[in-house]
Every structure is written in C-alpha cells, then in structure tokens.
UniProtKB/TrEMBL annotation:
InterPro entries: ATPase_NBD, ROK
Name the record gives this protein: ROK family protein
Family per similarity comment: Belongs to the ROK (NagC/XylR) family.
Length: 292
C-alpha cells in the first residue's frame, strides 16, 4: 500500500511516499503563498505518484480532525477555515482517502508508534522550530482538546513583567534564539541557524544567550510537567539533533528549585525532521485504514 505524506511548513512542504510503512525518497517544494497555488502544487505532486491508496498531511494550526478542517492554519492564514482534504480532492483526477492532522500531534504519534515513546502511555512532545508546538498523549491516546487547541504550547504567556503579550513562540522557539543571536552580533537571522549557535556555546557571549534561552525552554517544560505529570518529555525540531541541547536544558531545569519534586525523564525525538511525515502516515493508517 502506497501512502503519500506531506509535512506542511511555513517555508517548505516536504513529502514522501510510504510503501507498506517504509518511507522512500523525501523531497520538498516551497510553500505557496495563495490557496490556489497551494492546492495546485499539491495536486501536481499527487499526480506524479502512481498507485496511491491515500494522502496524509501534517499541518500547522488548530485542526478539526472530525471535520478535517483547518480552523486556524498557522502562518498559512489563507487556508483558515478550509476543509483541506475536500478541497484537494476536488483537484485530483481520482479522489483519495485523505487525513489532516496537527503537525505536533503527528510528531507525538511518530514517537509513540516507532520512536522514543513506544514504552510509555503518558508523554509530551515539545517541538522547537519557527515556533513552539506540542503533542500530548494521555492513557495511550492523543489529546486534541474540545476545540482542537490542546498542545498549543507556543501560545502560553511568559516573561509577563517585561512583555505582557510575549509568548513561548517569542522567547523559547529556535527562531527566537536565532533572532537574539543575530541582533546581538549585528547579523541577519537568515544567515545562522540554531544548531550553529549551540555549537558556539564555548564563546562567553553566545553562552549567555543560550543560557537565557535554555531557561525559557526549561520553564516551559517544568510548567507542563507540573500540569500534566507525564512519564517522559521529548524535545523535537531540527535543533534537537544537536547532542548539546539536552545538557543545556538539564542544567536549566536543575536550577529550578522545585524540579527535584517533579522531574521526569527528558529525551529527544527519534524521527527529527521526518517526524511530521511519519506521524501523518500513522494518523491516516489509524484513522482511515484502522491499522494501528
């Protein structure tokens, strides 16, 4: 069975075909800036793939999985309120089963079914990238919330004494770290990435930026652990591939006076940048084909 999976991001859309659970070559296209181009480009990718049994999409924002609708589509605001699968099928020669799922929920599903959370039923995935996302498993099931907003960790307010409307997106994302670094050194944010910054942590000025950022990530983790009491917390996103990340966050967590009473195992996601593709595949196989 061939399933085409899309991982829709703000800059690129990655895609790949799963053949009986095995991911083939991964490719990407720039994320279009209009709804018409979005559907046309995805339809062209579909047309280039033979013998598909279904299409799965990992998608940003608030995703109503019952109606298969993007209530809010993150940075893809031009898709707000649209039934993505239905609109895509209208442009295909042959309609196919389609499943739309929140991107951080996809990351959590990938970890539960073939990653670093296979042995636990209660865990949290925190994705650090352009923003801060989250996926929550409780009693072995994904927690979507009444209005499909569970796991929107990036919208939590933080540092309110300085910035009353500042969110985790603004302070704890990889983009926030990159922006602070670029501002400090008079560079453009596009010329640096989070993994490069972590690699420079021996430089005193960089070390302070990383320490401040790590404290914000650790504060978010502590608050989530105090709220949800998970068995494990996993960090995802491209920056999680750097082995220096966990020690940075561990140091910041142990600086929190109450961490000893609440601490849980902290790790990184197994699937890294392919988590969205794997999670989308698992989602459609679970919801449309009843496999998992």
């Amino acid at each position: 069975m061939n399933v085409l999976a899309f991982d829709v991001g703000g800059t690129f859309i990655k895609y790949g075909v799963f053949n009986d659970g095995r991911l083939g070559r991964v490719a990407k296209i720039p994320t279009p800036r209009t709804a018409a181009d979005f559907y046309a480009n995805l339809a062209q990718v579909v047309a280039d793939q033979p013998d598909l049994a279904g299409i799965a999409l990992s998608f940003p924002g608030f995703i109503d999985t019952k109606q298969q609708r993007a209530i809010r589509a993150g940075h893809l605001f031009y898709l707000d309120g649209q039934a993505i699968g239905q609109e895509l099928n209208r442009r295909l020669v042959k309609p196919l089963p389609i499943w739309l799922e929140n991107d951080a929920n996809c990351a959590a599903m990938a970890e539960k079914l073939s990653g670093n959370a296979q042995d636990v039923d209660d865990f949290v995935v925190i994705t650090l990238g352009t923003g801060v996302g989250g996926g929550i498993f409780v009693n072995g099931r994904i927690l979507r919330g009444h209005d499909y907003r569970a796991g929107e960790f990036g919208m939590m307010l933080t540092n309110v004494d300085v910035d009353p409307e500042g969110t985790l997106h603004d302070y704890a994302s990889t983009s926030a770290l990159v922006q602070h670094y670029a501002t400090h050194f008079g560079m453009t944010a596009s010329s640096v990435d989070g993994r490069q910054i972590i690699a420079e942590q021996q430089e005193p000025a960089v070390a302070q930026l990383i320490e401040d950022w790590g404290q914000r990530v650790a504060t978010a983790i502590f608050n989530l652990v105090a709220t949800l009491d998970p068995q494990r917390v996993l960090l995802g996103g491209g920056i999680s591939q750097n082995p220096a990340l966990l020690p940075i966050v561990h140091r910041a967590l142990h600086a929190i006076r109450f961490w000893d009473d609440f601490q849980v195992p902290l790790g990184t996601c197994a699937h890294h940048n392919d988590a969205g593709l794997y999670g989308a595949y698992y989602a459609i196989m679970t919801e449309r084909f009843g496999k998992y």
